Amino acid sequence: MDWKALLHEEAPSPYGEVAPPVFQSSLFAFASSAEFEAAMNEGNRPVYTRIGNPTTRVFERKLAALEGAEDALAFSSGNAAMAATLFSLLSAGDRVVLATPVYAGTYGLVNKMLARFGVEADLVDGKDSKTIIEKLPGARLLLLESPTSYTFEMQDLSALSRAAREAGVLTVIDNTYGAAVYLRPLDFGVDLVVHSATKYISGHSDVVAGAVAGPARLIHEIRAKGLVFLGAKLAPWESWLLVRGLRTLPLRLQRHQQSALQAAEFLEEHPKVRRVYHPGLASYPQKDLAQKYLRGSGGIFSIELADGAAAREFADSLELFQIGVSWGGHESLVLPLASQPRVAASYAFPEGLVRLFVGLEPAAELIADLEQALAAI
Ligand SMILES: *Cc1c(COP(=O)(O)O)cnc(C)c1O
């Protein structure tokens, strides 16, 4: 882990401040037209905040260092980062191979939005490497998410990205779960890594943001097309909050991981729980992939209740876990997935599937809360 990138600043400043300034300015002015032209042509100074801002740049460089990437680009949401990436790299007539299940926002972006612009998609079960590899010749882009949202299945990143490279196909992954700390996909041959920084990277449930990291050439292309034309830039103040979130990211992840594993182990033994979907458990069906790719497992996982019809009652009975979407902040959350119609309709989840996010509260109190809610159903 590049702790220096997280905790220290790159450039010495005359004031010695240890936190970056917030450059809350929409434009940057020049004393001469020669300086202005140099900034426009060489990008050596900021010009306009839609295209780049010094505070946002601090966040981008720190995230790039964590991912082991040459560069990164921030956006106003995770979906904006994914949309800018796909709209920059794809054209009408191109085909995407989409590993499923996938986050609902990505599913909609590919199947409802890009489809209207003449981009085709092949949806293939992400566990089925053989079929994914068969679909690669002639495709433009392979889109992965591992572990997946909702059921936390893993994909074989090295094998898939190697096959994609041989077929001339770019591999893009949603790495929101791994958060650049527990998974570094570029180490395994993936070309581009997309994040919802709303989750662990922000860490305090107060920012919606996204980013993409990868080789300078591709990031430049996404900046020139996706950022400049689509315009979904991240605000300077929110960039500053993300820099602050990054400082404690590894510490927070450790705490989420410890508490969530304890909760998952408790739930796995409980007679009212049919199954626990958690890549850190000894019973995880894709243990070999988890060991190969993940350095840790974080705070999010799902359970399937033995009595599927009790999912809403279970969520309503919890006191410390609040009902809510998103995750990655300080507060524990519960989401009965069957009651989220858009998600359930796309993937036919078991009725009793409930997603839990274990926050920073004491694990023993969270487990006691799970125990009383299970007793109530
Ligand atoms: C939340 C999320 C997104 C979308 O990010 P936003 O910041 O909400 O736009 C994408 N992928 C995953 C896995 C997510 O959890």
Q: Look up the CATH topology of the largest domain.
A: Aspartate Aminotransferase, domain 2
Q: Which small molecules are bound? A: pyridoxal-5'-phosphate
Main sheet, how many strands, which sense, barrel? 7 strands, mixed
What is the terminal separation in angstroms? Answer: 43 Å
Poorly predicted spans: none
| Lateral strand order in the biggest sheet | 1-7-6-5-4-2-3
Helix tally equals: 14
Helix content: 25-40%
Q: State the CATH class of the largest domain.
A: Alpha Beta
Q: What does this molecule look like?
A:
- This protein is an alpha/beta fold.
- The strands form two sheets. The protein has a seven-stranded mixed β-sheet, sandwiched between helices. It has a five-stranded mixed β-sheet with strand order 8-9-12-11-10, covered by helices on one side.
- The protein has helices at about 5, 35-40, 55-65, 80-90, 105-115, 130-135, 155-165, 215-230, 235-245, 250-270, 285-295, 310-315, 340-345, 365-375; strands at about 70-75, 95-100, 120-125, 140-145, 170-175, 190-195, 210-215, 275, 300-305, 320-325, 335, 355.
- Helix 3 packs parallel to helix 9 and helix 12 (about 310-315) packs across helix 14.
- The mean pLDDT is about 95.
- Helix 5 (about 105-115) links the parallel strand 2 and strand 3 (about 120-125).
- The chain has two domains: about 5-245, Aspartate Aminotransferase, domain 2 (3-Layer(aba) Sandwich); about 250-375, Aspartate Aminotransferase, domain 1 (Alpha-Beta Complex).
